[in-house]
Amino acid sequence: MQPHPPPTRRRARTPAAPARRKPVDVGDGAAASDSATPCLLQRAHLQAVPSTLLIPLAARARGSRYFPWLACDDAVATSLVDRLGADVESCLDDLPTVLNVLWRTRAIKDAGRSFFLAHPQARGVNLGCGLSHHFQWLDTGANQWLDADLPEVMDLRGQLLPVRCPRTRQATVDLTQPGWWQRLGLPQGDGAGVQPVFIVCEGVLMYFQPAQVQAVLREFAQCAPAGSRLVLDVMTYRAVGHAAQHASVGPTGAEFHWGVGNMDELTAAHPRLALLRQQSVSECYGWPGVVLEALWWPWLGAPLYGLVTLGVGDGSP
After folding, report:
1. Contact, 107 vs 307, CB < 8 A?
2. In the structure, what pLDDT confidence band is assigned to residue 316 with cuts at 50, 70 and 90?
3. Cα dist from 95 to 8, 67, 178, 214, whole Å
4. Is 102 within 8 Å of 63 (Cβ atoms)?
5. Which of 100, 162, 170, 265 has a CA that sits 20 to 30 A from residue 130's CA?
């Protein structure tokens, strides 16, 4: 049965729930003291793009109250929002974006679980991780996980989400600088015993210039072992330059610089790249959403908002 279509207008502001003073034990999750965390976000001095990390955090922590069929049960996000004391209610005013985040979270979880079912000892990576914590869902007990982002974000993350599991680590990365694959110490080559890599890059590339996106995709294709996967979110090129009109992103001052005009653009960066799967958030709106997107496709060239899985080497799903 199709879920009811989500509302497309901003909801009325509801009072924020009182913050809990006792932290929740989330395993590899947060450990900073409650008295310190409310001001950590203020001291982080995040620039426009990194500051967007609050949007998915709020959606995963509180979004299930509006879209229960997409509840992701993110214990880490719930704990962080409660302890940070940040005003995330404004992020929840933008219900379409909350829906987008919850939908892509479910899709990433499904893709990750499928990958690690086939490769239980492989490595997972979250590029531009913000305060996301996918390992809580994708831990096989034998795999490894790396969270990486800009230095100011990782400094904040180190205080809120210190590493507790020996199979996880954190690192700084600037994806606009070539050589990031090697600097992160990710496996290369297709020799015997080299495990493929599962990579998530959500809410990142639309803020890059097109040439920078192509460079990221090319480096992934050149370096990743055969069978590796890159899951990233995409939007139509028609959204480029219009972030100010986005209810959640607009107030941060960030801008959209990259969008997709044709899905073939995603594999043009390197011959090893294959488009294994493409998904659109329109599926959450039932058949009316799918039909409308099909009608708009000649003008849009890509989903209004979607998720794609790129593979290298073997071409298998």
Report:
1. yes
2. very low
3. 7, 9, 36, 31
4. yes
5. 265
Question: What are the C-alpha distances in Å from 126 to residues 112, 161, 201, 219, 308?
Answer: 11, 14, 6, 16, 15
Could you tell me the two tokens for 271? 């011959």
Whole-structure pTM value = 0.85
Tell me how far apart the alpha carbons of residues 60 and 131 are, in angstroms, rounded to a whole number.
11
Whether residue 274 contacts residue 267, with contact meaning beta carbons closer than 8 Å, is answered with yes
At residue 162, does pLDDT exceed 80? yes
Cβ-based neighbour number of residue 246 at 10 Å: 19
Residue 271 neighbours by CB under 8 Å, 6+ apart: 221
How confident is the model over 194-212, as a mean pLDDT?
A: 96
Instruction: Write down the pLDDT at residue 49.
Output: 60
